[in-house]
């Protein structure tokens, strides 16, 4: 394409005057032009300073296909809108937002009003002009101090300073009049007074068609030296005079929930203002996570050192590719080229998946009744992780009302962490309900969850698959006889509980008295049989698995007990609650290659034996002789950030929390795709069956018509043979006079509108008339 590259060239030194701070340096102009040429385009640089008539003449001479515009304009409150308005009037496509949007974004006060109406937080402020200055000084600003004073119609931090002698941040009301007077002298179009927001400076770039978030780039945090005496401001000095003192951190150091809200706010701001092709949004994020939108820039700086290119590098784009992406966005939008012509793959809009999130909320920390349930922090973390993957999250607490609520929820898929309420099949309740309603879900199915929760039943399955597990016996009362195969020490635990519920310091027993006392206590407390196992002394490990048919085995994590004076340590409920005091974790565990391979093989065999899917955790012990015993299998492991074993394992092998949740989601998404494919196949089969039935009906109808036509034809043939023969004889006698026929067959012509049946009836009527009346030739 032939491109006119319109720009303002900076000729003055920004250290001496800020007048041309928004203009492009010669280095930036050359970098942009080179990038466009490297993309295969013909580029004409057009410096727009001077009379507009000169620009018109240049554009007429060049006759460009499109304009790549970075021109800021020279003066006035509409200067950034001037050139886009001109290009629109000439009918030449150009990059960037339209004239109206550029006029809005240059006016900080107007931008604030618009984004406030959209429900986006921005610092409280007011516009001060020469006309209302005296009134504001008399009545007061009505803002909480400190405040910041800045020009209302300037960019590149012009008029914003933070040094020993001058600061745009006003700490006391008595200092405000003088600051406003000075600011209005320099910027008579108006100054903006805002409450100062303490926090981190975050820039969010936007380039349409780039990345996987509708053009929104990774947030960039500006880091620079601050002091207690001076507030932190990304001022003119840092932006233009000493840019080397500013470091960029990308992605910005933000909590996951804050980052998710930042993206949501950015999308809303882009829609509200009407930005297109490229833009930059400047935010302040407080230590408490509150997000304030400070400014919107529809003509962001394209210097090679700007934050925009730090963000595009995160999605694998070079400077040249980024400039090319801006041009492509404008070309596609204007219809100048198609995506295939530009070699651009436009992402197809995909409807977000409605994910029902089923869980049980832990509301009480007293006792262990709700030990298996998840605290609100975990639920929020998982919901945020799902939302960041682009899903719509529908919260569904697994209460007795869930069957009704789930049937009405209209969800595509269930992300399930619900432990259930009561009974040894409680973990299977939500999956079974999903199966009943035909809703795909994450995690193992109801049969696997029911078997795994029943420890004795799960151990029987493992033994059938030749997987080593401690000898065991189920006792339904304390009076039952102990099997002679069971040798002390033994450990006693509830048969159908998780999270080490019911396991404590007295769970390991050395004789029958202790055994029976512990069994009695557990049966009375948990109203279920007790599982008695031989105690395996040795090292304790847990192994996480992700996937389905060919699960990925994560590195084993060893639970290391701190107190060496306990010869028979147990990873019990109390230890898990105060883990920092009793244990530490080592992941990957220090194992020989043979030991690690054996452990991974056993973990995978256990996963297959119980028919687990998506995620599971296998707890093991290895005795002094190297034998590895499977203690328990948890197909519904905890997902509390920085606490649950599986999360710690994932983190140790470099997997972020969001990635872990996404890995678990993969199985559910695959089942959702399979369901939709089956529905499409069934629909095609129904359509094919309907089509075949309709075709059969049409064939039968045609056959009936053919049969009727054949019957009518036979009837017509008989009538014509008799009637026409007699008529021929009569005609022969009449015409020849000698009763002889000339042998010619004369057909009776039927009128076009006369039905076949009518012809047959007429023939019959004629025959009847002939037989009842005398023939004209009869003597």
Describe it for me?
The structure is a single chain. The chain is 41% helix and 17% strand. It is globular and about 105 Å long. With 779 residues, it is of the alpha+beta class. β24 (614-622) and β25 (628-634) form a beta hairpin. The longest helix is centred in the C-terminal third of the chain and has 80 residues, at 657-736. The model is unreliable at 727-779 (pLDDT under 50). It has six domains: 2-101, Rossmann fold (3-Layer(aba) Sandwich); 104-317, ATP-grasp fold, B domain (D-amino Acid Aminotransferase, Chain A, domain 1), CATH 3.30.470.20; 354-442, Rossmann fold (3-Layer(aba) Sandwich); 443-468 and 538-655, ATP-grasp fold, B domain (D-amino Acid Aminotransferase, Chain A, domain 1, 2-Layer Sandwich); 471-535, ATP-grasp fold, A domain (Dna Ligase, domain 1), CATH 3.30.1490.20; 666-772. The strands form six sheets. Strands 20, 21, 22, 23, 24 and 25 form a six-stranded antiparallel sheet that branches. α1 (26-38) crosses α11 (319-334) and α13 (376-388) crosses α23 (657-736).
């Amino acid at each position: 394409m032939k491109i006119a590259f319109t720009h303002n060239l900076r000729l003055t030194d920004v250290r001496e005057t800020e007048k041309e701070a928004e203009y492009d340096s010669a280095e930036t102009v050359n970098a942009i032009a080179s990038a466009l040429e490297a993309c295969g385009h013909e580029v004409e640089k057009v410096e727009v300073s001077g009379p507009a008539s000169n620009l018109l003449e240049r554009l007429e001479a060049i006759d460009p296909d499109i304009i790549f515009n970075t021109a800021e304009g020279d003066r006035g409150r509409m200067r950034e809108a001037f050139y886009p308005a001109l290009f629109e009037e000439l009918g030449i496509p150009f990059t960037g937002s339209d004239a109206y949007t550029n006029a809005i974004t240059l006016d900080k006060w107007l931008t604030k009003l618009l984004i406030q109406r959209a429900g986006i937080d921005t610092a409280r402020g007011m516009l001060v002009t020469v006309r209302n200055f005296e009134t504001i000084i008399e009545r007061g600003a009505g803002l909480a101090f400190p405040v910041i004073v800045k020009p209302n119609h300037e960019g590149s931090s012009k008029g914003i300073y933070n040094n020993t002698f001058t600061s745009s941040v006003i700490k006391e009301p008595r200092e405000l009049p003088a600051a406003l007077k000075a600011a209005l002298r320099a910027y008579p179009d108006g100054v903006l007074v805002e409450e100062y927001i303490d926090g981190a400076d975050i820039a969010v770039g936007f380039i349409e068609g780039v990345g996987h978030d509708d053009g929104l780039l990774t947030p960039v945090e500006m880091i620079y030296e601050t002091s207690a005496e001076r507030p932190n401001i990304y001022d003119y000095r840092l932006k233009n005079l000493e840019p080397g003192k500013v470091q960029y951190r990308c992605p910005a150091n933000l909590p996951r929930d804050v980052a998710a809200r930042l993206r949501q706010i950015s999308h809303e701001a882009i829609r509200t203002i009407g930005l297109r092709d490229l833009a930059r949004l400047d935010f302040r994020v407080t230590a408490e996570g509150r997000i304030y939108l400070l400014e919107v820039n529809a003509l962001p700086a394209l210097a090679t050192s700007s934050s925009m290119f730090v963000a595009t590098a995160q999605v694998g784009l070079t400077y040249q590719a980024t400039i090319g992406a801006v041009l492509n966005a404008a070309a596609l939008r204007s219809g100048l080229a198609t995506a295939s012509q530009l070699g651009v793959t436009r992402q197809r809009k995909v409807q977000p998946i409605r994910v029902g999130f089923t869980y049980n909320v832990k509301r009480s920390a007293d006792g262990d009744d709700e030990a298996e349930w998840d605290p609100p922090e975990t639920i929020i973390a998982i919901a945020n992780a799902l939302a960041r993957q682009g899903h719509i999250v529908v919260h569904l607490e697994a209460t007795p009302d869930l069957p009704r609520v789930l049937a009405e929820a209209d969800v595509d898929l269930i992300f399930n962490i619900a432990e259930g309420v009561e009974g040894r099949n409680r973990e299977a309740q939500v999956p079974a309900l999903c199966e009943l309603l035909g809703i795909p879900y994450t995690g193992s199915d109801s049969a696997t969850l029911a078997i795994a929760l029943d420890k004795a039943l799960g151990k029987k399955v493992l033994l059938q698959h030749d997987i080593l597990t401690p000898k065991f016996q189920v006792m339904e009362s304390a009076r039952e006889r102990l099997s002679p195969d069971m040798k002390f020490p033994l450990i006693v635990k509830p048969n159908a509980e998780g999270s080490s519920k019911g396991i404590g310091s007295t769970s390991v027993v050395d004789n029958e008295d202790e055994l029976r006392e512990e069994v009695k206590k557990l049966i009375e407390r948990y109203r279920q049989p007790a599982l008695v196992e031989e105690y395996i002394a040795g090292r304790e490990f847990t192994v996480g698995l992700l996937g389905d048919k060919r699960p990925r085995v994560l590195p084993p994590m060893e639970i290391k007990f701190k107190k060496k004076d306990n010869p028979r340590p147990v990873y019990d409920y109390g230890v898990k609650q105060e883990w920092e005091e009793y244990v530490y974790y080592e992941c990957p565990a220090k194992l020989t290659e043979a030991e690690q391979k054996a452990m991974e093989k056993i973990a995978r065999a256990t996963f297959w034996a119980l028919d687990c899917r998506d995620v599971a955790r296998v707890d093991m012990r290895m005795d002094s002789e190297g034998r590895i015993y499977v203690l328990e299998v948890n197909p519904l492991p905890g997902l509390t950030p920085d606490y649950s074993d599986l999360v710690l394992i994932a983190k140790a092998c470099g997997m972020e929390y969001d990635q872990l949740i996404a890995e678990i989601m993969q199985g559910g998404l695959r089942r959702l795709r399979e369901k939709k494919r089956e529905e499409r196949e069934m629909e095609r089969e129904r359509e094919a069956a309907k089509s075949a039935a309709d075709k059969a009906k049409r064939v039968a109808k045609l056959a009936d018509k053919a049969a009727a036509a054949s019957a009518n034809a036979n009837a017509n043939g008989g009538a014509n043979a008799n009637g026409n023969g007699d008529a021929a004889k009569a005609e022969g006698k009449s015409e020849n006079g000698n009763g002889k026929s000339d042998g010619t067959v004369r057909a009776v012509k039927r009128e076009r509108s006369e039905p076949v049946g009518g012809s047959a009836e007429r023939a019959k009527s004629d025959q009847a008339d002939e037989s009842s009346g005398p023939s004209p030739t009869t003597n």
